[in-house]
Design goal:
alpha+beta, Immunoglobulin-like, 2 domains, five-stranded mixed beta sheet, 40% strand, DUF2914 domain-containing protein, DUF2914
């Protein structure tokens, strides 16, 4: 019995010693995490949409799925309170950054920008565009699914958004970016 009590005493002493040395390190880590949580972005993304076309600086539809028979998609974002900042549309697919498109937001409280991505038919799956502020902080993330048109005939727009018919837009560079009020 005496031997059992000695073993418990040794373990307890070791545990207390460890707590004495680890506690200050943990306390410092908590302060750092708390400081990081206080970052507040200066502005916001009021609206964001994937679309088949942009007309008059506005998306013509709101896509959540796109068949791989289409080879291009646009991402539109309506920025508020970000005048003078550099904003990035980061296009991600399958865990990889496929493109980063940077915009300098002009003067004014509202600024509408868009970027586009040419897609290869074999890039089937979920895509994400993250809107980042100048410090790299994510302001908004949006997703769409690029699917095999021969395997799936599901509608490509949300049910509450009817597609709008417009004349085709002129050809543009491979990955394009535009902005304006």
């Amino acid at each position: 019995m005496k031997r059992h009590l000695q073993r418990i005493g040794t373990r307890t002493l070791a545990l207390l010693t460890a707590l004495i040395f680890i506690a200050p390190v943990t306390a410092g880590a908590e302060e750092t995490a708390t400081g990081a949580e206080t970052y507040t972005p200066r502005g916001s993304v009021a609206r964001a949409a994937f679309t088949s076309r942009i007309e008059d600086r506005e998306p013509t539809d709101n896509l959540v799925r796109l068949p791989n028979s289409a080879d291009r998609i646009y991402f539109f974002s309506d920025l508020r309170g970000l005048d003078g900042e550099i904003i990035t549309h980061r296009w991600e697919y399958d865990g990889q950054v496929m493109a980063e498109v940077k915009f300098r937001v002009g003067s004014g409280t509202r600024w509408r920008v868009y970027s586009s991505k040419n897609l290869l038919p074999e890039w089937i799956g979920k895509w994400t565009v993250v809107v980042l502020d100048e410090s790299g902080w994510p302001l908004k993330a949006s997703m769409f699914e690029y699917f095999d048109a021969s395997q799936d005939a599901t509608p490509i727009t949300p049910q509450d958004t009817a597609p709008v018919t417009h004349k085709p837009s002129p050809e543009a560079p491979i990955d394009e970016a535009q902005g304006g009020q």
